[in-house]
Design brief:
This is MFS transporter, AAHS family, 4-hydroxybenzoate transporter. GO terms for molecular function: carboxylic acid transmembrane transporter activity. One of its GO terms (cellular component) is plasma membrane. It comes from Pseudomonas panipatensis. By secondary structure, this protein is mostly helical. It folds into two domains: about 200 residues, Growth Hormone, Chain: A; about 200 residues, MFS general substrate transporter like domains (Growth Hormone, Chain: A). The protein has 16 helices and two strands. It has a two-stranded parallel sheet with strand order 1-2. α5 crosses α15, α11 runs antiparallel to α16 and α12 runs parallel beside α14. The longest helix is centred in the first third of the chain and has 35 residues. The chain is globular and about 70 Å long. It starts with 5 loop residues before the first strand and ends in a 10-residue tail after the last helix. About 0% of the residues have low confidence.
Length: about 450
Amino acid sequence: MNTQRAIDVRQLINDRPLGAYQLWVVFLGFLIIGLDGLDVAIMGFIAPQLKADWNLSTQALGPVLSAALVGLAAGALIAGPLADRFGRRIVLVSSVFFFGFWTLATAFSSDVTQMVILRLLTGLGLGAAMPNASTLVSEFAPDKRRSFLVTVAFAGFSAGAAGGGFLSAWMIPAFGWHSMLLFGGALPLLVAPLLWLLLPESISFLVAQGAPAARVRRIVERIAPGASSAQSHFCLPSAPVTAKTSVGLILSPHYRFGTLMVWAGYFLALFLVYLFSSWLPMLVKEGGGYGVGEAALVTALFQIGGPAGALFVGWSMDRFNPYKVLVLAFAGSAALIFCIGQATTHFLLLCVFACGIGFGLNGTSVGMNALATCFYPTQARATGASWMSGIGRFGAILSAFAGAQMMALGWSFPQMFAALTLPALLGALVIAAKGLARQRRPQALGAVSR
């Protein structure tokens, strides 16, 4: 090839088969999100033993469990603009070190107040890691496989949380609840230096920032050996620059409506995912009249459906209209949520519907992350994905209060689930609205054209 002309790095990635180096980046993204999943879930694993050892009430335990969610929201809002200014790599490595350090410090908490503060600080790092990991993976992925590879990286969250569950079942009885925090903090601290050595910077970011051609070429040669020479220079598809900052860009007239719609969609998706994760056992036990074991089984099946749903939705988004896929996932989840409310006396159907709801809701939440990385240009991709994640976390926080309020109102089992169809249907509507607006408006260069 003629190496004297400019090489479009996005076209280079799109025109080649997926290579080993790109799969390596996906694995590192999976690892980062897996560590994130472990440390997000860790307080749930230690909560029963912590409550007994410190003689805490359920009300006193609430802030301990929810503090990280507040930190997650703040961390995502802060980290996105930083990643668009200073790079994905430095923010990711720093976030892993940050949440590892504060998780380790949490093991030495002496009271509830101290633990809440430390979990809030931990959440800042956790919130920075996930959306920026997905951004980095998306920028090494070819467009035709981007959504699926992002969802593969996101499968790390379930793997990390599940692995933490198995470890806690052994470690807490043997060594106490402190041991899980020590492990959950030490592991990221050990991984962070390795990430600094092994994790590449996004070539799209480097080109957008005008980095030296030699630095870009080193990464290009790992992706496509022989595709460039010392005389090559690199470029990206041009994107309309309508603002001086990444936050200004995602809120500019060209992106504003889409931004508001992805915020609303992700808010609703996380509201439902966290509400079902937290409240389904109690809803099945008290609303359905089942025992603790049966309620736990229904909830476990909800969680089992999640990874399969995420991968299926990501695969489908690469092959079909991504907006239609997400609308169907939201609408299908709404139908299953209504059905589970009508299956009070049929335990087998409860299990089937719970698995289906986990499939659909987790598919929508992870699919929304893939959609955000496709919607925004390189100059604001990390901010767009991170701010969507940060706004969505408020839906997760609200779910705790909504579940408690439904229980306090004394609604019947069918009434509770009939009410929960509404946010799922609203999610379908906002994604449909964004898809229709996208059809009427020209695609911005620099984002993925569907």
